[in-house]
């Protein structure tokens, strides 16, 4: 074994005193755009879309760093001076930026135009940047980008096209013309389905469903979902939005179980809360309302999440009102946060919780009183009249919410005595469970199967091994086999 050179104590102290290496600063937005352009060209030349997906994953963070100067520097460094594409892209930036940059020192420009996918990518980030200042101008750029993208008709452009459709929808929405884009989305969705373009098809289905939900056209959205098949190979982000939209549709259609399932899938598939806080909050707001409509109470720790704590204050008050069964607190909370609920598009669902609040209040009264008049019920639950109280109590009895009966002649409700945890009914139910478990055990034992005569095969194999050992020992004694044949060798 080679010796290890030990460092002197002085050198060890010198190494420990060295400062930790400073991490490299993040690249500038211009450098990041140019690196993304290189990856796009590599994806087109090698026919590997994973490089394009790597570029698109940086889009969310890059959008926050964009400005006119960054975009001008990036386009000027990617395209040569005489390029027509360069002039077309720079025309969407303010003229003041062009004049300022022309006065500065000349930058190094490329010698030839890159692949067409680069132009669509730059148009995509241009749309996102212009959307923050001028929605009308962004809409014009989006329409021009769609025409150019459809004219090129390149399959290597499919991942970028899926992101472009999202930017186009956003431009139409901010411009107040989202309904006008529906025909274009339907035509593009048919083309994407025929071309098996999973990313674009998934994005367009989400765009169409969101367009219907924006105008409260839930029947049309449900028909679209039932008549189309969402691509299984679509990205996780598209699946997340799709589950959220289906959850909204099912909640409005009173199918709370399916809505709860799809919203759970959306929460599990969603990105980190800090990466997409708006979507994370929207899903949880609807999820809390659906849980309340199902008769469950959400956990308190949900409202302590740092991303959800402030936006979910109004929903926490609704949860407390439903849990307490106080109709007055519920109405006060509803009037106080009504504008926020309308903005979140959950007001219609929250109004349905009134019946849950009343049922909870009646259940609490049935546990507290063995007999209570309908007049007192009307006062405690803040109902309009005794007739309403009688109707609501009757419905609660029929639905099995409470075990009671209404004495109409005397005008009160008599509650049944509370059942204890002992008695013949409990013992019979316990006996049925024991019988079921024993029957399941017996059936499992009977279902076990073992191969026939398996032990005989093992005995025969062991007997054959012993016979071979005896023959080998006999040959060694007779000298027919030496140590070299057995794998041994001379020792040095």
TrEMBL record:
Coiled coil stretches, renumbered: none
Keyword presence, Metal-binding: no
Domain PCI, first and last residues per copy: 240-420
Keywords assigned by UniProt, alphabetized: Proteasome
Record's GO cellular component terms: proteasome regulatory particle, lid subcomplex
Tagged with keyword rRNA-binding: no
Biased composition (Basic and acidic residues): 1-18, 461-477
One Gene Ontology term of the molecular function aspect: enzyme regulator activity
PROSITE patterns xrefs: PCI
SUPFAM superfamilies, sorted: Winged helix' DNA-binding domain (SSF46785)
Residue ranges, annotated region (Disordered): 1-30, 461-492
Comp. bias regions, Pro residues: 20-29
Gene3D superfamilies membership: 1.25.40.570
SMART domains: PAM, PINT
Protein name: PCI domain-containing protein
Source organism of the structure: Fistulina hepatica ATCC 64428
GO biological process, one term: ubiquitin-dependent protein catabolic process
Family statement drawn from the similarity comment of this UniProt entry: Belongs to the proteasome subunit S3 family.
Domain of life per record: Eukaryota
């Amino acid at each position: 074994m080679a010796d290890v050179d030990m460092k002197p104590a002085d050198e060890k102290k010198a190494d420990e005193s060295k400062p930790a290496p400073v991490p490299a600063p993040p690249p500038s937005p211009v450098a990041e755009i140019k690196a993304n352009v290189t990856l796009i060209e590599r994806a087109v030349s090698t026919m590997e879309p994973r490089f394009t997906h790597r570029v698109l994953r940086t889009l969310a963070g890059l959008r926050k760093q964009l400005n006119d100067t960054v975009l001008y520097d990036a386009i000027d460094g990617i395209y040569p001076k005489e390029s027509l594409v360069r002039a077309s892209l720079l025309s969407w930036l303010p003229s003041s930026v062009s004049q300022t940059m022309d006065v500065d020192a000349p930058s190094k420009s490329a010698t030839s135009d890159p692949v067409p996918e680069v132009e669509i990518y730059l148009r995509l980030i241009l749309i996102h940047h212009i959307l923050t200042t001028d929605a009308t101008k962004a809409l014009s750029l989006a329409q021009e980008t769609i025409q150019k993208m459809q004219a090129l008709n390149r399959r290597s452009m499919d991942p970028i096209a899926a992101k472009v459709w999202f930017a186009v929808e956003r431009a139409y929405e901010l411009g107040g013309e989202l309904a006008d884009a529906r025909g274009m989305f339907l035509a593009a969705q048919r083309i994407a389905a025929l071309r098996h373009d999973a990313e674009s098809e998934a994005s367009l289905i989400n765009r169409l469903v969101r367009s219907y939900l924006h105008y409260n056209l839930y029947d049309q959205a449900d028909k679209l979902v039932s008549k189309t098949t969402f691509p299984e190979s679509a990205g996780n982000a598209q699946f997340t939005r799709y589950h959220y939209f289906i959850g909204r549709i099912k909640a409005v259609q009173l199918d709370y179980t399916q809505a709860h399932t799809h919203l759970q899938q959306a929460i599990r598939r969603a990105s980190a809360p800090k990466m997409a806080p708006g979507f994370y909050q929207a899903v949880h707001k609807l999820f809390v309302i659906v849980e309340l409509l199902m008769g469950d109470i959400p956990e308190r720790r949900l409202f302590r999440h740092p991303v959800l704590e402030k936006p979910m204050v109004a929903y926490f008050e609704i949860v407390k009102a439903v849990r307490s069964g106080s109709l007055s607190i519920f109405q006060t909370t509803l009037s106080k946060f009504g504008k926020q609920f309308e903005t979140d598009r959950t007001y219609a669902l929250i109004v349905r919780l009134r019946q849950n609040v009343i049922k909870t209040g009646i259940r609490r009264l049935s546990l507290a009183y063995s007999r209570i008049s309908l007049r007192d019920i009307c006062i405690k639950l803040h109902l309009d009249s005794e007739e309403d109280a009688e109707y609501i109590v009757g419905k609660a009895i029929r639905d099995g919410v409470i075990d009671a009966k209404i004495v109409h002649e005397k005008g009160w409700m008599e509650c049944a005595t509370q059942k204890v945890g002992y008695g013949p009914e409990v013992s019979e139910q316990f006996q049925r469970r024991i019988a079921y478990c024993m029957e399941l055990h017996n059936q499992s034992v009977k279902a076990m199967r073992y191969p026939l005569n398996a032990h005989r095969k093992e005995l025969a194999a062991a007997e054959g091994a012993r016979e071979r050992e005896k023959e080998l020992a006999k040959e060694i004694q007779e000298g027919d086999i030496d140590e070299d044949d057995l794998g041994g060798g001379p020792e040095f």
